[in-house]
Amino acid sequence: MDSPEAFCVTGLREWIALPDLGVVGLRAKIDTGASTSALHATEISEFERDGERWVRFNAHIGTLVQRRHRCEAPIVTRKTIKSSNGQAQARYVIRTLLALGERAWPVEFTLTCRKTMRYRVLLGSKALVDGRLLVNPAHAYLLNKPQILTSPGAQ
User: Fold this and answer.
1) What domain of life is recorded for the organism (predicted)?
2) pLDDT tens digits, the chain, 155 residues: what are they?
3) Is residue 152 one of the residues assigned to a domain?
């Protein structure tokens, strides 16, 4: 069994950054009941680059004032996800670096419209295991905001 020192305790909500996408200042909901992580994305379109499948999309940053940030990432796969209300949806899956507190590791995200949801990012159990995180649901924002500079493409 791993020693407790190897793990980091997180709250139910935390600030994250996605540095490879040039995105910083996203509030994420930690969801141990979800296997896969999800990122709010709109205007999603697939394209080819150097013989590989990529996806282009807008990530949405901010809570009161929404800013769109155009992103591109290689496609890992397409996956059918069943939401908590039982609806099945085919989604693109990307893999990108996640920064949370002092840690950073690659995480797979499905791209989906979460505009009706309070949090633009949902961190699922696979990301928690890979990041060696323990969740204390009695707290929120236990970790410092990641200090990652955004790219000049943010709108």
Assistant:
1) Bacteria
2) 455 568 999 999 999 999 999 988 889 999 998 999 999 999 999 999 999 999 999 998 766 556 788 999 999 999 988 876 778 889 999 999 999 998 999 999 999 988 878 888 999 999 999 999 999 999 999 998 887 654 444 33
3) no
Q: What is the pTM of this model?
A: 0.86
Domain span including residue 34: 4-135
- In the chain, which residue ranges form alpha helices assigned H by DSSP? 125-130
SS3 assignment, position 129: helix
Q: Read off the tokens for 109.
A: 């995200």
Proportion of the chain in helix, strand, coil states, percent, rounded to 5:
10, 55, 35
